What does this fold into?
Amino acid sequence: MPTTIFYCVQGQVTIWLMGVFGKAGSVADLGALGRLSVMFVVITSVMTTIVVPRFAKYQSPQLLRRRFAQIIGAFLMFDLFVVAVAALLPGPILWVLGHKYAALRHELLLMMILTGINSTTEAMWLLNSAKAWIEYSWLHIPGTLITQAILLAILEVSTLRGALLFGIFSLIPSVLLNLWLAARGLRAIAANGALSPVSP
It folds into this structure.
């Protein structure tokens, strides 16, 4: 429960910081760019309803390791594709938001990087949860808070660029923790002896 509550609150921290330290225009820009993250909703929905239940069935360490790498690799490829499109064709994407957002080319790229990392981290969390590899998930809370305290000291969060960088680097503890939880879970299954692989 603490992790879930923290996750819900944490998602609004960037907007809150912009509201406190930034200008109203920057908050509006952040909200507009955030609407573009809807493209990640579809792949996350597929992940939740199809991929995760399938992954939960597997018992073979080799198959689990391979599927974990394949799933996260697919997410990373999708992230890279979206970031590449944002870098090469920012104009058409920003046109969807309206002409007053046409100058947010660099911020668009940062938002796509932020959303991509967040989406991939969420995918890792879903896979770890499906196999109950979440015993030390509470470490996410102090790790994120310490990281954000450091970031507040070195970043200018009153600007849109600074707020987006704050969001990106705040995800580092979660990424590292989920990778460690997955590696720990796979080692535990291998150590306890694998059952017969469930046919994919």
